[in-house]
Structures
1.
Amino acid sequence: MTRALIIIDVQNDFTEGGTLAVDGGAAVAGAISALLAAHPHSYPHIFASRDWHDAEGGNNGHFAVDGEPDFIDSWPVHCVADTPGAEYHPALELPESTVHILKGQGQPGYSIFDGVDAGGEKFGELLIAAGVTDVDLVGLATDYCVRASGLDALEHGQHVRVFTDLVAGVAAESSEQALAELAHAGAVLATSELVEQV
């Protein structure tokens, strides 16, 4: 069994003060850093995703270029590549070994499985190459990108744990629904207290 930590979209635009701020986003950033500091050897593989959208155009309908966003399929402009809003929140301290995954890039890209590393390799292929069988999922937002990433991980045969103390969502009701959906699909809902000291 090889376990990986997957950190979803802990970016400035998704935390307090950002274009699509999630309440509690900054606290999640700090709590993930605290987990990594307390358990520096618990995860042989750490992956962190970021939305990395194109500045031009609507990113295949993801940005509401004409008219108002519906906040379901279309959104205000956010996490544009190489802008401060797309950077990790400053409270998120990642080890040098972290593999950075960029998603979006002209597409909506909710799931980390839509993303690639710096060399262009797809995330799913990276998991296979690393022999990862179990993933712990944290980050933002529970009801969108965490949900999509968790469901895709399950479809790819991973054993998934979602740490409910290290996620935050856009809305309470939709976040609860997302967690219930993940649990129904086979994910384990837990807290980061389960992380074992190595």
2.
Amino acid sequence: MINKFFSRLGVFFLCLLSLIPLRVLYFVADVLYILLYRVFRYRRKVVRENLSLAFPEKTQTEIASIEKRFFRYLAELIVEIVKMNSISKEEVLKRFVFKNKEQVQAYLERGESILICSAHYGNWEWGTLGIGLNFKAAHYPIYKPLSNPVFDNWFKTVRSRFGNKLIAMRQTFRAIQESKNTSTMFSFGNDQAPSTGESNYWTTFLHQQTAVQLGIEKIAKKTGQPIFYFKINYVKRGYYTVDCIPLCLHPEQTAEFEITELHTRFLEDMINKEPAYWLWSHKRWKHKRAS
């Protein structure tokens, strides 16, 4: 009961913060960066270990530079997620611009469906809102529910703005079957570590043996729906573009694990070019492959 009260109090505080203009929230982000990085040293050991494993060729000075840029961006990302509760459609359309979307729109205008592949890179949360505003089809973001029901409900509410229909990971196949007669967009964040017992594929990713989810490959092969990678590009503070890149237009013609390798290599290339915008603060390689 006490935990629920404090959770609701936390959500109320987040809603109040969301009403503050972004230009002021970015000042909060500057302070938050100092607190996260220098005062509380939030997950600095985890971030440093992940970066050192991913970039063995870089010096410790280079690793430290990426680490600082990541924490600066993490602070920005936090206030941008808070702002989702009250951000207007006009603000999202101005700050999150989709490029090369004609091919996606062509599929949807013919009444067909597509699958969207992305990752926890850049502001993927604003990306969810942007998809709902930019495309005329039912958009189903696939998400992993939070353990705290109060915060889970708040996140579902803010993510569902502008027409999005959130689907828990375990309900994906059912939702696809139920919506098979309509034009849909199911979006997957394919850099989440598979749960224990979940179907996965092992590959080398950023020099590490890594388990990758097979969900999008299985669904693409079963439905024949084309896959587009929505690549988020950080332009400047508070502004992004998204490239809608055809990753696999004929999944039924691919070999086993080919699609999984395609999106894994795509993300790896993104991270190698601009590493600061991936979510390094999670224990990326906590699962080890059975020998």
